[in-house]
Structures are given as C-alpha cells and as structure tokens.
Amino acid sequence: MNQITVTGMVLSIAPIGEYDRRVVILTREEGKISAFAKGARKPNSPLAGAVNPLSFGEFVLFVGRSSYTIRSANISNYFAELRQDMMGACYGFYFLEFTNYYTREANDEREMLKLLYQTMKALTNVRLPNRLVRRIFELRALYINGTGPQVGACVSCGDKERPAVFSVKKGGLVCSECDVGVIDGVKLHPSTLYSMQYIESSKIEKLYTFLVTDEVLEELEHVMDRYCDVYVEKRFKSLEILETLL
User: Fold this and answer.
1) Which runs of E-coded beta strand occur in 17-142?
2) For residue range 119-151, what is the model confidence (pLDDT) as tens digits?
3) Please, what is the end-to-end C-alpha distance for the chain in angstroms?
C-alpha cells in the first residue's frame, strides 16, 4: 500500500457503517477523490474535526487497489467564521455542492480548487456582499468548465467593436450585424459587461477585489439567473435552502 500527501478541501461527507465516513476531497494533485476516514465519527478520533465540509489542508492517504484511506490530516483553514454564520454557511455549502457537481475524478481541477478557496476567503470579507461573491463564483466556475458565456466578442463573427446584445440562448454577445432573429438579446450596462469580462479573464487571486453598484449587481444577478437556468442542468438543494433565507 502506497502513501501520498495531497492538499485540498473537503466537499462532502457521508456516514459509512457505525464509525466511519466517506469523504469527497477536491485536491490539487489528484483532482476530486473519495476516501474513507476510519473511525472519524468517534468523538475522540483525531479525524473527527478534520474531515468536515469546508476544511482545507493536507491529507495523508493510503492508496489501496481501488480506494483511498485517510491516515491523518493537517488542516490549515477550517473557515470557522462561516460555520458560525448561517448565511455564510449556506453560501459556502452551495459553492461546495456546485464544485462537487462540476468536478471529476482523475481530472486536473487545480483552477477549481483555487477558485473555491479564494471564494471561501471572500465570504469571510465583511466588505464584500455575499450576493456579489456568489455571481463571481458562478460565472468563473462555468468559464473554467467551458460553459461560460462569451463576453469578449460576438459569438457568431468574433467582432469586438460593433454594438452588441447579450443572448442567453446564443451563449454570449451578439453584434448588431448578427442579431437577426435573436429574441432574447438585452443591452447590458457597460459596467455589467466589464465586470463579466473581468471575472472571466482576471487571475483568480484578483477576482474578489472590486465592488459594483446596486444597479450593476441586480443586472448581473438577472443575467446569471437566466444563464444558469439554461446551462446548469442540476438544481442544488443547498441553493434552494439559501433562497428561502434571502
């Protein structure tokens, strides 16, 4: 049996048997993995506090023929602030569920892990509205996974200069020469469009460094709600709970 050390965040847990847990971790080295945490449900287990959703750190794993087993964990950030804040926790669990849905085993998920970590840090920043954090996360996550809207040029001809409308059905901007027959096109506020372009193109470490007006945030929310309705096939339970609290 081989041993490896990975860095990652716990996405979800599930009870196994009387004392064990099945833990899903998004890791930098191995992508998304499932691992067994033996005895983790015992109160005196060293893993009891480590293998919980939101926990980020290093995990030492035994690699079996068909599964991983967690030997130990060194957690560098429990995101305790979110655990003590109902709204923050609801947003956090939504981001975890969204990430779990969009990531795959044996896939390079370093960008998603980086996005998830920076997003959780942003949730703890009292100067950033959680509503804005949510829309930044959704748009960048969709972009990373290849399903984000094209907001830098016309989706049909690639033009970057002509006036354009945003079409959810077309998957992005449609210029004035190509918008014949586009019935859902909307003219975005310049600041909304710029924000979307910045979210898709900036370094992840720089994502959560700006604020927008209420008008722009409301338009961004409207656009992302419509876009997710079309391109996100899953309805997240955590989002349903979150929306009952908003």
Assistant:
1) 20-27, 31-37, 56-63, 68-77
2) 999 999 999 999 999 999 999 999 999 999 999
3) 48
Written as one letter, the residue type at 66 is: S
The pLDDT assigned to 36 comes to: 95
| Residue where the block lists tokens 């919980």 | 52
**Lookup: tokens for 36:** 């067994």
Distance CA 202, CA 205 (A): 8
Residue 106 reports pLDDT greater than 90: no
pLDDT score for 58: 97
User: How are beta strands 172-175 and 164-167 bridged, if at all?
Assistant: antiparallel
The count of C-alpha atoms lying within 13 angstroms of the C-alpha of 66, restricted to the half-sphere facing its C-beta, is: 0
d(CA 60, CA 46): 13
Which domains, ranges and CATH numbers included, belong to the chain?
A: 2-77 (2.40.50.140), 81-153+160-245 (1.20.1440.120)
Nearest-angstrom CA–CA distance, 44 and 156: 60
| Spatial separation of the C-alpha atoms in residues 25 and 113, rounded to whole Å | 10
Closest among 22, 7, 25 to 75, alpha carbons compared: 7
